[in-house]
Request: fold
Amino acid sequence: MKTRWIILSAFLLIGFALLFFYQRFNSAVPRFYDLPEVAADSEKHSTRWYRKSPLKRLRGVALVVHGLNLRPDRMEPLIALLNRAGIDALNVSLHGHGDNYFHGDGREMQEARLESFRTVTSRLWSAEVHSAYQKAKRRAQQKDVPVFLVGYSLGGLLGCELQVSKPDVYFDRMVLLSPALKITLQPYLLKALMPFPDFVLDSLSPESYRANAGTPMAGYKAMFETLDRFEKNMNEKLNVPTLIFMDRNDEFISYDELQEMVMGGRLDRWRMVAVEKDTPEAALYAHHLLIDETVVGKEMWLKMQAAFLSHLTSDAKMASHSHAREK
Reply:
């Protein structure tokens, strides 16, 4: 892995020298996502409902958002927890992930999905999550229950950015797993490659977790732009009951800086839970990956489940849920 980052660092000087030309190119060339048929495909394939058992009382509606280049269906272990607790879940597939790619040009699925991934922007992903939130909120309003956010990595960032920047967005409670709110130095080295948005960097994630074989620079650019907006717009709306799961050795997110943000940002309703992978098998996976039993180990997963459910179901029938605030 050290060799990988040394090679990326070598692009640093060249990349920054080309940033000026990239910015001119990026603003002048029409992007793939602007096509009406692509927007229609995104709306059709970007969300999927997972309903709780009809025998259970509905206790809330959760918007679930995956991470960068993660298969959206890998969020299903968390969704199963939600459903068992009586919470409906709306799972988001960001453009370039899952079945959310342009289907209209006759390409093979993997090729079409990766090509769609090369065209993503922060604005597109934010619009997709915002649209999904509206669907979740309508369901919550109909049933008079709260709205939750469950976000992993990029998904946590996208949800938090909407919370602080959109007046109509309000999550009553949030569960964030390795949220991309404070990124370490190593990912920032990727900015050297931003002049090459079509360049695809091989993924470090296990193949069975990847949405694509690699991540285009366009995806990293969209993430960094979302992070910039989040940092500029941080406000008191962010201080809702929030549970954060993080490994102190996360390769991409700084545990210490996130903890400082919580304390310095007066987020007194946020609580961080340190995740320690407790089996040799779990230790084979990146510290950043915390979404199921396989990658954290059985005992740790049981602890995470208990904390997850306790956080979302304690006093779930809150007087201040989002739609109540709007009345």
Notes: Residues 2-326 form a domain with the Rossmann fold fold (CATH 3.40.50.1820). The first helix runs from residue 2 to 10.
